[in-house]
Specification:
Blueprint (H helix, E strand, L loop, with lengths): L1 H21 L16 E7 L6 E5 L12 E7 L12 E10 L2 E6 L11 E9 L1 H16 L7 H5 L32 H8 L5 E6 L8 H15 L8 E5 L9 H17 L7 E3 L16 H5 L7 H13 L2 E5 L15 E5 L6 H8 L5 E7 L1
Helix pairs in contact: 1-2, 2-9, 4-5, 5-6
Amino acid sequence: MEHGHKFALSIAFDRAEEAADECPCDNNGKPRRQRTPPTHVKLSFIADEPDHVRAIVRVDAKTEVRLHSHVRLQAASKATNRWIPAPIMDGLVVQAFKGELKIGLFHPQPPELERMDWNMYHAGITATSKARMDAVLRLLQEGQACCNFHDTITGTANETAVEVEPETISIMSSNPMEPSMNERLNQSQIEAVRSCDAPLSLIWGPPARTGTGKTTVVVEILRVLLKKSSKDHPPKILMTASTHKAYSTCAAVDNVLERFVPVNATEQLLPEEQILRVATDQSKVNENLKDYTVDARVGGDTNENNRLAKKAQERVKAAVLVFTTCAGAGLGTLRKVNFDIAIIDEASQITEPGALIPLVKGIKQAVLVEDQ
């Protein structure tokens, strides 16, 4: 439990710091002058939902606010009584449509709300923080049922009274009929691939530079896992990587998918429809890989069409190999989906709560990969 408390606090502090960076305020919570001006909105009450309001936004307004945004609402109208400060409310966008938002408020609504004009400030996105917190809670509540190496993560391995035989797919085998390694791999790469027999494997490559062969190892692990598995009952594999704020694309996970595609085409490891690239923001996916996205497979934006969203869930359920970021593994169509194996690339660039998002999805076997 102490383990969970520590990481829950770190997640909360990180979210508070992000909100302070995105929307700087004075000691009274009043937003300071921002680089990006606030969005002007009109608010209205929602019947039978006293904790929510509807915000009407001009469709041509330039705003970063979207679903899961933390917003700060400040009254733009001046009070009749000049001694009363302008009301300020924080809230979370729970629904987003063109020109309209539904906001769950953290503060009581003023009765004059509909007669006032409001400035809406963006204070960051909460989706990743919530996914991290959900992962920590699931690890504490479900234990080994959600993660085969729960005791290793929490440091309680010696306290466990009953040992459970780990369910893993062995890569090493004396059977000559088993798939051989890629002939282009050097000895250290071969050893790295073979190390993945353990329930939890850590692969640490040479100092980071172009051409270290790390991606080659990851693709080879995927190839051997699929080669050794039953065609009728293959393991469900989640291939993830950290999310780089400094880049406009999720480079690491897309690099692996781009390298895996020709290998799959040559060896026919999986039908293409069983390979998916899941992203909360389709624009950040490598252009060459857009055909593998859920939106491309179902023929439209799943965020704006309930029928397509249902199709997307069916696609994810049928997929064998899913590529996404660590945060993406706990969002949208993947939020309630479990897997057998998780691979995390760029593992040293994420916090432990961030890594838990893919690791608590019913995972029996995991591989964490990083270079120095």
